[in-house]
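Hi all, posting the design record for the shared folder.

TITLE: backbone redesign
STEP: 1 of 1
STRUCTURE INPUT:
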């Protein structure tokens, strides 16, 4: 039975998420989910799904691989989304009475991967607006900040700024349709920002607001880094498709109405409600 996060989370953990835009929670996910995800990784690397980024399908080192939107076709992801309790965890930290699921995102960085995840906010990439939108990033392997773990600009979710999405691979993509302010070059001016990161063990979760600026290096460690991030919508989320947003789900795919709460149980299923 999944943990009841509304009763387990401490006031300090809730306050940290509210003030910093990110909180690290040790040992959130049961080992059997991690074992299943590990099996899925091997299969995805051999037979990728339709929404994939892959910098080197033939490489055994230096490969960056991501796969998204698997919950409809992969029972492993579906079980994790609906049964693990991460939806309630997301809702509890967002201060929401419900959690709708947006999408899953499997992230694999092989040892020696030089491809960094550039500093960015998630929110401009997605067809949503609102303060109650977050990710639950679950570590499936051990990693440190020095090797490949995520880093965040503490409190950046409260900057009231909306940075233009940019292609992570450097190639022209759907993000080119967006016009707006570029994210500051955090890496070039690290001392100017309050940067925090977390060394993680398998089963740890990092929960962060879609407005929080974050990034990650490649993988300087000797082992594969695997994480599964799930994206969640709270009560205050609004469907807001715009030029430059992720085309995986468009207005043609949903009954959601622009500017309103996305009450579409097919595309954005209600996973948890108080």
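Okay, here is what came back for every position:
SEQUENCE:
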């Amino acid at each position: 039975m999944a943990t009841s996060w509304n009763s387990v989370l401490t006031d300090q953990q809730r306050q940290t998420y509210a003030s910093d835009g990110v909180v690290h929670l040790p040992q959130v996910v049961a080992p059997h989910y991690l074992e299943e995800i590990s099996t899925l990784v091997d299969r995805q690397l051999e037979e990728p799904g339709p929404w994939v980024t892959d910098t080197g399908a033939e490489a055994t080192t230096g490969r960056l691989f991501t796969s998204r939107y698997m919950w409809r076709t992969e029972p492993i992801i579906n079980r994790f989304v609906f049964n693990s309790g991460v939806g309630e965890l997301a809702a509890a930290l967002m201060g929401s009475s419900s959690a709708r699921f947006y999408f899953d995102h499997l992230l694999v960085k092989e040892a020696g991967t030089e491809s960094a995840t550039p500093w960015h906010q998630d929110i401009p990439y997605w067809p949503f607006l609102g303060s109650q939108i977050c990710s639950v990033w679950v570590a499936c392997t051990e990693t440190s900040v020095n090797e490949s773990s995520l880093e965040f600009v503490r409190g950046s979710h409260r900057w009231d700024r909306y940075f233009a999405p940019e292609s992570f691979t450097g190639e022209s993509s759907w993000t080119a349709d967006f016009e707006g302010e570029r994210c500051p070059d955090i890496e070039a001016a690290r001392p100017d920002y309050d940067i925090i990161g977390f060394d993680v063990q398998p089963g740890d979760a990092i929960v962060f607001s879609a407005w929080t600026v974050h990034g990650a290096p490649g993988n300087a460690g000797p082992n594969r880094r695997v994480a599964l991030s799930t994206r969640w919508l709270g009560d205050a989320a609004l469907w807001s498709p715009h030029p430059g947003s992720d085309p995986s789900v468009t207005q043609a795919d949903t009954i959601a109405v622009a500017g309103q709460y996305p009450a579409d149980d097919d595309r954005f299923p209600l996973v948890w409600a108080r």
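COMMENT: Residues 16-267 form a domain with the Jelly Rolls fold (CATH 2.60.120.620).
Let me know if anyone wants the other runs.
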